[in-house]
Amino acid sequence: MTAFDNNRRKILMGIGAAAALSQLPLTAHASLSAPKRLSFYNRHTGESTSQTFWTPSQYDSSALEAFNQVLRDHRTGEAMPMDNGLYELLYDLTRTLGTDRRIEIISGYRSPKTNAMLAGQSSKVAKKSYHMKGMAIDIAIPGVELSRLRNAALSLKRGGVGYYPKSGFVHVDTGRVRQW
């Protein structure tokens, strides 16, 4: 291959990459470089936090620690690192809904002890819940109807979505795509 052919190939590959990027939705372009912020309020502890958890190219570990603390098991006080994909899912969910309101936490991380206790009280609690893995959260957003929240979560097709209108929350997780 001559130097001319090699340069021509590089130019054509660059044009192809630019064309492919131009087909991405605007939100995809923004998500690559824009800071990402979430606000949480824990209904059980009264604690809240609002943090920028992503700055272009990296997660902010102090923001993630603040989130993990607010999302801890309120019964035992145990915290664990939550799945970063869960924060990404929640961020995209708020963007889909067009809101920057705080997310109210009904249940974030659950210790195995708490989960076993809850599973013993209700058949609706999974014995191997994603809450114990830091991959699930039960939420509500003030001013957003639960059915709208559920539909937005379903539209993302990024994990499990449970709808609990009588209890006033929507469950989202980063497991396989499913709904109930």
Feature tags:
alpha+beta, globular, 6 helices, 180 residues
Structure commentary:
The chain has 180 residues and is α+β, with helices and mostly antiparallel strands. It is built from 6 helices and 8 strands. The chain has helices spanning 3-22, 26-33, 61-70, 84-97, 112-121, 146-156; strands at residues 36-42, 48-55, 58-59, 103-107, 136-140, 160-164, 169-173, 178-179. The chain has an 8-stranded mixed beta sheet. Strand 6 (160-164) and strand 7 form a beta hairpin. It is globular. It starts with a helix and ends with a strand.
Number of separate helices: 6
Average of pLDDT: 87
Radius of gyration from the alpha-carbon trace, in angstroms:
20 Å
Strand residues, percent = 15-25%
| Largest sheet, spatial ordering of strands | 3-2-1-4-5-7-6-8
Poorly predicted spans: 17-22, 24-30
Quantity of strands, as a count: 8
Distance between the termini: 58 Å
Q: Give the structural class.
A: alpha+beta
Please give the largest β-sheet.
8 strands, mixed
Shape: globular
What series of H and E elements makes up the topology? Answer: HHEEEHHEHEHEEE
Fraction of residues in H or I helices: 40-55%
Short description:
By secondary structure, this protein is an alpha+beta fold. It contains six helices and eight strands, in the order ααβββααβαβαβββ.
